[in-house]
């Protein structure tokens, strides 16, 4: 920032002091937490005779006290200057202010086109639809970090739910309620904030806002873990899901249009592979820290992990403030869509792009329900099959499933260099459906292997569906991205449908619900492959971006 040296020094000192205050508050909160835990363990009431208002009232006299002994802390004071000199200074400042106010608007001034921040020059990047493959790489690296982070967060919460429920002495339905609350945030975030914020303020401000909301949700785990409060944990999950919903609303459309559109499916599948790898790392890490969680005290110790995640979110928000991300206006997106005549075709009097988006939303709902059902079903299947067939621990099967999930997306991204996206989307849907059917027919270790095979095949379905659906949407691209994220609320239905089927007929039988959901979701790839206008609209075309 172009500031005088003294002002820079004051700014650094101010932020350093703020950081010190945060550290002190964290330590103070930790001691208060220990006191709360001790009281919960001993069932001691609050001590009598402690007047909080009496001790807190001292804080109101701090500012007058500082003004009395060190007024220079509160306001500017020049003890050595005579009164006449001070009057002269005031008149000079008033004259400068009047000159500034009366300066004509048309008078040229020296304006730096871009500022420097701590010696690092900012540059104005090209808009997203104008980026080629080389220029699109740096922004995608930032987005990949975000995707890996929320994949790790989901895995961390997934392993924490059973521990929290066991310590709090709650039922399995309470655990399903926590999972449902998380996915409900994905519905409210994109529709009530993400879409509007993205269209009015751009990608950078949307990412920053999402990180702030996300960090608030992770901070809230502290009181919910210490107090073992189910209601507080529900609120924490809702805020985390809300923030991640806003985050994904921006990221899905950003990745799709960040570079030539012929590679959009490759970009989305490749970046979202790190979501799975982040989850695999998180499962491995949490196995070490959750193994010893058996009571309130050990549960509260996990707060430091969430505190680290929250601070990392804040650092990412700050980094996005200083890094200029490329943006995309609705006019540029509309121009890019109108350059391809296939996007203007109609089917039964309705634009083909609307058919593509509508069917992807409908089928994507069932795809997400089946995906979440199978993901939770694998864990239940390991417990149900049990016996000597299960030679690994539960978390190890989770890690294997996440690695297969990410490997599937990497393999899909590689295959897109040789096959059309609509072909691969149909193949992975059929593969997941067949694996789910086999999962209900075999027993023992073979059933678990089929469950892991379901994880492998379903990996490429989500990113392919999203990337294909956003093709040719023009000025509605950002709105379409928000709708595609909002349908992830289907996971709530998948969670409870699996529970009902498992209670009535067993865990293996619950995969029949996933088979039915995948059967419905296959309508979308069939539409893409059988309708000529849809084939022409979604097939990649070389150099499909706005050239400079």
Number of domains: 2
CATH topology of the largest domain: Growth Hormone, Chain: A
Beta-strand content: under 5%
**How far is the first residue's CA from the last residue's CA?**
31 Å
CATH superfamily of the largest domain: MFS general substrate transporter like domains
Can you give the mean pLDDT?
79
Using DSSP, what is the number of strands? 4
Query: Runs with pLDDT <50, length 5+?
Result: 83-87, 96-123
Can you characterise this structure?
This protein has 548 residues and is an all-alpha fold. The protein has two domains: 1-32; 131-331 and 338-538, Growth Hormone, Chain: A (Up-down Bundle), CATH 1.20.1250.20. It has 23 helices and four strands. The strands form two sheets. Strands 1-2 form a two-stranded antiparallel ribbon. The longest helix is centred in the middle third of the chain and has 48 residues, at 172-219. The radius of gyration is 28 Å and the shape is flat. The model is unreliable at 83-87 and 96-123 (pLDDT under 50).
List the topology elements:
Elements: H1 5-42, H2 52-56, H3 62-69, H4 71-74, H5 83-101, E1 116-117, E2 120-121, H6 137-168, H7 172-219, H8 221-227, H9 230-257, H10 264-290, H11 296-300, H12 303-322, H13 330-338, E3 346-347, E4 350-351, H14 352-385, H15 394-415, H16 421-439, H17 445-458, H18 461-469, H19 477-486, H20 490-505, H21 511-521, H22 523-530, H23 532-538
Antiparallel strand pairs: 1-2, 3-4
Helix pairs in contact: 6-7, 6-9, 6-10, 7-9, 7-12, 7-19, 7-20, 8-9, 9-10, 9-19, 10-15, 10-18, 14-17, 14-18, 14-20, 14-21, 14-22, 15-17, 16-17, 16-18, 16-21, 16-22, 22-23
